[in-house]
Amino acid sequence: MTTVLKLGGSVVTVKDEPETVDDERLAAAADAVVAAEDDLVVIHGGGSFGHHHAAEHGVSTTDGTHDAGAVQAIHGAMARLNARIVAELTERGVPAVPIHPFSAGARTGDGTLKFPPEQIRTALGEGFVPVLHGDLVVQAGEGATVLSGDELVVELASALGADRIGVCSTVPGVLDGDGAVIERIDDIRDVADALGASDATDVSGGMAGKVRTLLALSAPAQIFGPDALAEFLAGGTPGTTVGDGG
Fold first, then answer.
1. Strand 113-114 and strand 106-107: pairing?
2. Where do runs of H (alpha helix) occur along the chain?
3. What are phi and psi for residue 27, nearest 5 degrees?
4. What gap in Å lies between CA 163 and CA 226, rounded to an integer?
5. Phi/psi at 212 (nearest 5 deg)?
6. At how many degrees (to 10) do helices 206-214 and 149-160 cross?
7. Please, what sign has the CA dihedral across residues 23, 37, 80, 213?
8. Using CA atoms in the order 4, 8, 12, 17, what is the torsion angle rounded to 10 degrees?
9. Residue 219 has pLDDT above 90, yes or no
């Protein structure tokens, strides 16, 4: 079985403090990943690394830049975070390898992502745990735009035929207006009033963006909090189930 796991940027970093790792949460997440038995692809968000630089340079998933310095700043920050996460996993014996999306994909002029999965599929077949991240990608006519970790989840889960998809956020699931976890979401319109932007700088759409992208998957996905990561990796379905796989 193949599992695609997204670690939210707000889980592994202190999101309102530029380029600051949340050491305790990252260590706990790495501890949980050690026990995973499925073929595993890890994708992490930008948190306080990528998002602040992207916002500073006015770059988003739709607004690009032709400034090489901006590209270097945003991608460089994400590469530093990726290296830290790979190191944490490696220290625990996980065969983690870094894969940087800026060097692997591109967008056409209409924004369509082209991200060949052969590198990821081969890495899995050779026993590695690929660790990818939100990044920039070159886009025809726009220079470089943001590729969110959530978009990568959809792209790779579909391309790899993933059996399980999990998104670990800072909340225990998608919350309704009273703060209770919504058990299941099959249509974004059913929960539109409950979804809002994230509480810190985020250029990739917050929780509403996560739900929209996950609903595009051909398999149901789980959104859950850090305390439920081990449960998810053990085969559980904590938090909110998004989509029905139909």
1. antiparallel
2. 9-12, 23-34, 47-56, 68-91, 118-125, 149-160, 206-214, 229-233
3. -60, -40
4. 21
5. -60, -45
6. 10
7. negative
8. 160
9. no
Site of tokens 């700043």: 73
Q: Is 235 helix (H, G, I), strand (E, B) or coil?
A: coil
Q: Which residue has the tokens 């998933």?
A: 61
* C-beta of residue 160 within 8 angstroms of C-beta of residue 34: no
Tracing tokens 């990568």 back to the chain, one arrives at 152
Q: Which two tokens stand for residue 147?
A: 């590729």
173 contacts 223 by C-beta, under 8 angstroms: yes
Query: What are 229-232's contacts with CB under 8 Å, separation 24+?
Result: 229/28, 229/29, 229/32, 229/33, 229/166, 229/168, 230/32, 230/35, 232/5, 232/164, 232/166, 232/168
If phi over 0 gives left and psi between -120 and 50 gives alpha, with beta otherwise, what is residue 243?
A: left
Residue 201 has pLDDT above 70, yes or no: no
Give 140's DSSP letter: T
In whole angstroms, give the CA distance from residue 168 to residue 160: 20
Q: What is the mean pLDDT of the chain?
A: 92
